[in-house]
C-alpha cells in the first residue's frame, strides 16, 4: 500500500498516543501479526484509528498486570470488557467522590470544545488565585479528572490533547511572569534544577506544575521537556551544574521502567546531585529508595527550604 488514509497515524504518533515504544510495535507485528500497519508514500508505517484504540486498551491492561500474548489476539470488545472489570492494580483512578464540583465546569468546556472559553476562564482563575494555589488547587486535581475521563472513554484523545495544550500555554505564560530571584534578599542558596521525564514518559503537565512552584520558591530551572534519555539527563545536569534533577512520572508509567531509570540515573550522577521524583506513578509510593526523594507538589516549598539548610556553610 503506497498511500494511507488521512486519519491513519504514524508510528511516532502511535507511540505518543499509547505509550508503547516503536520497538514494541515492530516486535508485536512480527510475533503476533498485530498491529498490521499500512504504508505512506515514503514507505513509513501508518496505523488506522481502530488499531490505535486496541493498542491503547492493550497498554492499559498490561499496566494492570496482563501479559501481551494473551491480549493481542483478543477482540477489541473483549478488551473493553476486561478494562471495565479488571481492578486497576498499580493505577490511581479518580473515583466519583473525588471529583470536585467546582472543576466540572472546566471539564464540560473541554468536552464541548469551547477552548477559548476554557483558556480565558482558567487564566482568570490564575489571576484570582495566584500561581501556587492555581497549580495545587486547580490544575493538579483538574488534570487528574481529565485523565480519568479520558481513561473511561468520556473524553476523546483529541479533547484531552486540547486541554493539555491549553494548560501548557497558560502555565508557560505564568512561569515567564515570575520575577527572577533577588540574590540580595538573603533568601539562601538558589538551587539549579534540571526538569524532565524519562524515555516513553510523554506527559509533561506534571513538570510544568513542579517548575512553576520551583521558580516561585527561587530555584533556577532548566527544563528539558519530556522523553529524555538517561545519559542525556546526566549530561545536562553536568553542563548546567545542577544541584537537583527533578523527574515526573505519570500513572501509566511502567514500574520496571521507573525503577530502572532512577537506578541508572543515580549511577550516572555525582553524589552531590539529588534526584527528586513526583507524579502519580504508584511505584514511587510502594518503593522507598534512599537515593531518590519522592514528593508531591505541596512538598516542594518545605523540601527546598530543607535543601537550603543542608547546603548552607
What does this protein structure show overall?
The protein is α/β, with parallel strands linked by helices. It has 3 domains: 9-85, Multidrug-efflux Transporter Regulator, Chain: A, Domain 2 (Orthogonal Bundle), CATH 1.10.1660; 96-176, Methyltransferase, Methionine Synthase (B12-binding Domains), Chain A, domain 1, CATH 1.10.1240; 185-311, Rossmann fold (3-Layer(aba) Sandwich), CATH 3.40.50. The chain is 52% helix and 10% strand. The chain has 13 helices and 8 strands. A hairpin with a 5-residue loop joins β2 and β3 (45-47). It is globular, with a radius of gyration of 21 Å. The N and C termini lie far apart (67 Å).
- H/E element string? EHHEEHHHHHHEHEHEHEHEH
Assembly status: single chain
User: Helix share of residues?
Assistant: 40-55%
Under CATH, the homologous superfamily of the largest domain reads: Cobalamin-binding domain
Low-confidence parts: 87-97
- The whole-number mean of residue pLDDT values reads 85
Please state the structural category.
alpha/beta
Question: What is the CA-based Rg, rounded?
Answer: 21 Å
CATH architecture of the largest domain: 3-Layer(aba) Sandwich
Q: Approximately how much beta-strand content do the residues carry?
A: 5-15%
Report the span from N to C terminus. 67 Å
CATH fold group of the largest domain: Rossmann fold
Q: Any idea how many domains?
A: 3
Count of DSSP H/I helices: 13
Amino acid at each position: 500500500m503506497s498511500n494511507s488514509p488521512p486519519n491513519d497515524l504514524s508510528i511516532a504518533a502511535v507511540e505518543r498516543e499509547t505509550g508503547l515504544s516503536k520497538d514494541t510495535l515492530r516486535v508485536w507485528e512480527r510475533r503476533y501479526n498485530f498491529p498490521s500497519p499500512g504504508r505512506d508514500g515514503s514507505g513509513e508505517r501508518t496505523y488506522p484509528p481502530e488499531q490505535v484504540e486496541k493498542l491503547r486498551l492493550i497498554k492499559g491492561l498490561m499496566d494492570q498486570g496482563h501479559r501481551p500474548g494473551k491480549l493481542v489476539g483478543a477482540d477489541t470488545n473483549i478488551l473493553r470488557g476486561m478494562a471495565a472489570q479488571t481492578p486497576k492494580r498499580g493505577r490511581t483512578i479518580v473515583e466519583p467522590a473525588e471529583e470536585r464540583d467546582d472543576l466540572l465546569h472546566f471539564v464540560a468546556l473541554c468536552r464541548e470544545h469551547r477552548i477559548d472559553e476554557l483558556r480565558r476562564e482558567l487564566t482568570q482563575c490564575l489571576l484570582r488565585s495566584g500561581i501556587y494555589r492555581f497549580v495545587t488547587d486547580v490544575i493538579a486535581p483538574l488534570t487528574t479528572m481529565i485523565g480519568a475521563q479520558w481513561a473511561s472513554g468520556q473524553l476523546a484523545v483529541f479533547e484531552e490533547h486540547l486541554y493539555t495544550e491549553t494548560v501548557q500555554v497558560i502555565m508557560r505564560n505564568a512561569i515567564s511572569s515570575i520575577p527572577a530571584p533577588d540574590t540580595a534578599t538573603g533568601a539562601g542558596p538558589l538551587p539549579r534544577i534540571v526538569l524532565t521525564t524519562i524515555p516513553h514518559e510523554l506527559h509533561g503537565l506534571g513538570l510544568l506544575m513542579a517548575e512553576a512552584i520551583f521558580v516561585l520558591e527561587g530555584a533556577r530551572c532548566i527544563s528539558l521537556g519530556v522523553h529524555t534519555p538517561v545519559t542525556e539527563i546526566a549530561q545536562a545536569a553536568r553542563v548546567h551544574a545542577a544541584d537537583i534533577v527533578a523527574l515526573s512520572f505519570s500513572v501509566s508509567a511502567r514500574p520496571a521502567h521507573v525503577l530502572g531509570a532512577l537506578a541508572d540515573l543515580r549511577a550516572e550522577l555525582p553524589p552531590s546531585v539529588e534526584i527528586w521524583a513526583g507524579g502519580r506513578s504508584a511505584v514511587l509510593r510502594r518503593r522507598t529508595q534512599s537515593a531518590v526523594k519522592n514528593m508531591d507538589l505541596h512538598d516542594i516549598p518545605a523540601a527546598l527550604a530543607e535543601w537550603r539548610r543542608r547546603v548552607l556553610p
